[in-house]
Automatic annotation (TrEMBL), chain A:
Cellular compartments annotated: Membrane
PANTHER family: DOXORUBICIN RESISTANCE ABC TRANSPORTER PERMEASE PROTEIN DRRC-RELATED
Membrane-spanning segments: 20-38, 181-199, 226-251, 263-286, 293-313, 356-374
Domain of life of the native organism: Bacteria
Domain ABC-2 type transporter transmembrane per the UniProt entry, residue ranges: 21-371
Lineage: Bacteria, Bacillati, Bacillota, Clostridia, Lachnospirales
Record-linked InterPro entries: ABC-2_transporter, ABC2_TM
Primary location class: membrane
A single GO cellular-component term on record: membrane
Name of the featured protein: ABC-2 type transport system permease protein
Keywords of the record: Membrane, Transmembrane, Transmembrane helix
UniProt organism field: Butyrivibrio hungatei
GO molecular function terms listed in the Swiss-Prot or TrEMBL record: ABC-type transporter activity
Membrane topology recorded in Swiss-Prot or TrEMBL: Multi-pass membrane protein
TrEMBL record, chain B:
GO cellular component, one term: membrane
Pfam families registered for this protein in UniProt: ABC2_membrane_3
UniProt GO molecular function: ABC-type transporter activity
Organism for this UniProt entry: Butyrivibrio hungatei
Name of the molecule in the record: ABC-2 type transport system permease protein
Membrane as UniProt keyword: yes
Length: 382, 387
């Protein structure tokens, strides 16, 4: 009996054009849209530092120390990547023609042998970086001047140290450096999982005699209610899990965006997410009595949770984490995103298992409460 | 008039949809516009980096380093001592840089063992990482050189500090004369509007139109004796009125939000938005010729408009899109809308009204006509085959 009900429920869900459109097609379309928008940035992060195109004008008439410094900075060494991309000009006027930022140069150094003038087209990181180079150069001149004045006996040591790279600041290495833009794909999978709540409310609606004709027939049918609800939940979860797996495979193999997690592990997490979406929908279906709200609440619930997990704004989840972390622990979409993000960035650490644990507890809790609310419903008349 | 009134009244059912998109536009659009917009300035301003400092050493040298950072950067509370959380905070821009001064830092520097004396967490090799690491390295290497040259700890700290602060007046000239180096508040706001306005128009106009396409309603109107031309003109008039009202409301809202920003190009932005309105209405007609179900209209509109927004540089600036995507985008109306916005932003106000700007508007209107034509063909075929 259970198998028969499961298959018929599955058939019913698969034939629902609305659910197929939103749960199967929409995530695929959105993933494609994300790929078109962020695809380039996942492979080549626009925030990464690139050598700055700068012009150099020497009005001193002879080679200067600053010229040597920027020459060194435009070469890639074991200590640093190339920082500048220097083009030499004969006059300031000539260089000014190319001073346009994108498609030209981002600054001009005018070196008269004593002072370096920096000309930039607008403020920003590049302008600050170009100025910083001059600052460091002038700083070292001042430093050597001070030592020559106060401790001339140590001047040689100082000169040696000035040219030495001391590597004082060291970066922490967290291993896998997945692109930040993957966060959007994780949030998309979370959204698709929560769309599973629509499947549940659709299913519960068909089981409520006060909502649909089908519900009246269901209430009169001599079948175990628990079994039919369980088979419906399983059918919905299966459909949503397949839908999520298709989205994951599409992203990994068609769009060729790697999550940095073994495929079986992603599918396992998204299947858990599907169960979470379905169980949340069952809970909503059990709690809500108004027929109109059956459509509105799952949409509002899934979209609010998805927004807070970073679907539209990648920072929001971390902002919530910094200010009210408890909200991230009760938001199913944020839990799923955190689980995928943690697994991809740090591997199977405590937080990963904690997320899985909370999601599992949420599923069990939601289904238990729903079972209590849905059992032995009484109607005035059928 | 009764058809016109009925269609306007039917809009009531979509008040929540209108409110949701308006809120999205007003909140997200405004935040995005404020973050993306910048103004011309000929005064040099250093970029200030937000740095979270964890000082586990608490010695004279570590305090001096923190004080130097406080004077030149925006030092914030790391809110955690967990390195993983700090890494997440840095990656998601809660702050730009996390500096950890370990216990024994001063002893290490004084002993001359400088390598890895401080640690930092950054979101990859970024401009902020380069800048602040350079500054910290520079500061500490100066201290080390002074110490090794015979100065005492206090002298080294004082000299380094004074030197760093003195250098703030390096000679920088900013030649900020071009509009295209900046994106105005209105350009940013209207850019996001490309998505929200299209969604509003597609959903509201298509759903209102679908009311008239409902079999029961259309058959009753057909037998009512009202002239074919009158009833269709009323339907078109109602949809145009709804479209015009929504668009005008959006423009007014943007104007109110940007009241602090002086921009005499506002009229041209508004013209571009009205051109987009025709596309939105055309697309609404096209969608409702495919289906009259509200749910399906919503779904199709979402799929088309979202994809188009990503392809055409509405959510992500066109400069980050690949060339092949931009080539495809040429065949989409939102691309021309975004191009027109960029043209208005980059051009001097007295040079905007010309061939190029008008071409952009005409292309948008042509797209609207194509959607109308496609919708009419589908409707006719459906009628012909009684679908």
């Amino acid at each position: 009996m259970f198998g028969r009900m499961f298959i018929y429920k599955l058939k019913e869900l698969v034939r629902n054009r609305f659910l197929i459109g939103w749960n199967f097609l929409f995530p695929l379309v959105l993933a494609t849209a994300f790929y078109l928008g962020f695809g380039n940035m996942i492979k080549d992060d626009p925030d990464s530092f690139k050598a700055i195109d700068v012009g150099y004008v020497n009005t001193a008439g002879e080679d200067t120390n600053f010229h040597k410094v920027i020459g060194e900075l435009s070469e890639e060494t074991s200590d640093h990547a190339d920082i500048l991309n220097v083009s030499e000009y004969t006059s300031e006027e000539e260089a000014m023609k190319d001073l346009k930022g994108e498609g030209g140069i981002y600054g001009i150094y005018v070196d008269d042998g004593n002072e370096i003038k920096t000309i930039v087209p607008f403020n920003g990181y590049r302008a600050t970086a170009l100025n910083q180079i001059v600052r460091e150069y002038e700083n070292k001149i001042t430093l050597i001047g001070n030592i020559a004045k106060d401790h001339p006996e140590n001047l040689d040591t100082a000169l040696e140290l000035v040219t030495k790279d001391m590597n004082i600041a060291k970066e922490y290495d967290f291993g896998s450096g997945i692109s930040l833009y993957l966060q959007y794909f994780f949030a998309l999978i979370a959204m698709a999982s929560l769309f599973g709540s629509w499947i549940s409310t659709e299913m519960i609606e068909g089981m409520c005699a006060n909502h649909t004709e089908k519900g009246k027939r269901f209430e009169c049918a001599p079948v175990s209610k628990l079994m039919s609800i369980a088979s419906g939940v399983l059918a919905g979860a299966s459909m949503q899990a397949v839908s999520n797996a298709i989205v994951v495979i599409y992203i990994e193999y068609v769009l060729k965006i790697k999550f940095g997690i073994p495929l079986w592990n992603v599918i396992l997490i998204t299947t858990l997410g599907s169960g979470l979406g379905i169980s949340m929908g069952v809970l909503i279906g059990a709690l809500v009595k108004n027929k109109r709200l059956f459509d509105i609440i799952p949409i509002v619930f899934s979209m609010t949770c998805s927004f807070c997990s970073g679907l539209m704004w990648d920072q929001i989840r971390q902002m919530i984490q910094a200010n009210a972390p408890i909200l991230n622990k009760i938001n199913p979409a944020a839990l799923l995103v955190d689980c995928l993000y943690t697994r991809a960035t740090y591997g199977t650490i405590d937080v990963y298992y904690q997320d899985i644990g909370i999601m599992s507890i949420m599923i069990i809790g939601a289904l238990t409460i729903s079972a209590v609310l849905l059992r032995r419903r009484r109607y005035v008349s059928l | 008039m009764s058809v016109f009134n009925a269609m306007i009244i039917s809009l009531k059912a979509y008040v929540i949809t209108i409110l949701v998109y308006f809120l999205l536009f007003a909140v997200v659009g405004n935040m995005q516009a404020k973050a993306a917009s910048s103004e011309k300035s000929n005064i040099f301003e250093e970029v200030v980096i937000s740095v979270a400092v964890t000082d586990n050493d608490n010695t004279g040298l570590s305090k001096a380093l923190v004080d130097y950072l406080k004077e030149t950067q925006n030092v914030v509370d790391p809110k955690t001592d967990d390195l993983r959380t700090m890494n997440d905070n840095v990656r998601f821009s809660i702050y730009d840089y996390a500096l950890i001064i370990p216990q024994g830092f001063e002893d290490k520097i004084l002993s001359g063992d400088t390598e890895g004396a401080v640690s930092y967490i950054v979101p990859g090799t970024t401009a902020s990482q380069f800048l602040l690491t350079e500054k910290i390295d520079n500061y500490l290497s100066d201290v080390v050189i002074y110490l090794k040259s015979g100065y005492s700890k206090d002298e080294a700290i004082k000299l380094t500090h004074d030197q760093m602060i003195d250098l703030s007046d390096t000679h920088v000239v900013v030649m900020d004369n071009d509009d295209n180096n900046h994106k105005s508040f209105y350009a940013s706001m209207f850019s996001f509007n490309g998505y929200t306005l299209m969604m509003l128009l597609c959903v509201c106009c298509a759903c209102t139109w679908s009311v008239m396409k409902d079999r029961n309603v259309s058959e009753r109107i057909a037998v009512s004796g009202m002239h074919f031309f009158t009833r269709n003109a009323a339907a078109v008039g109602a949809v145009l009125t709804i479209g015009f009202a929504i668009t005008s409301l959006v423009i007014v809202v943007v104007r109110i939000m940007g009241r602090g920003n002086v921009d005499d190009k506002f009229m041209y932005y508004a013209l571009d938005v009205y051109a987009l309105m025709t596309v939105g209405i055309g697309m609404a007609y096209f969608i409702c010729s495919i289906t009259v179900s509200d749910n399906l209209i919503n779904m199709i509109a979402n799929m088309i408009v979202l994809s188009m927004s990503f392809l055409c540089g509405i959510f992500v600036d066109a400069q980050f899109l690949s060339e092949s995507i931009l080539k495809v985008a040429h065949f989409l109306p939102l691309y021309w809308y975004a191009r027109a916005l960029k043209f208005i932003n980059d051009t001097k106000v007295d040079q905007i009204l010309g061939g190029q700007f008008i071409t952009y508007l005409v292309i948008e209107v042509l797209f609207a006509l194509v959607f109308f034509a496609a919708g009419m063909v589908i409707s006719k075929k459906k009628e012909q085959y009684a679908v």
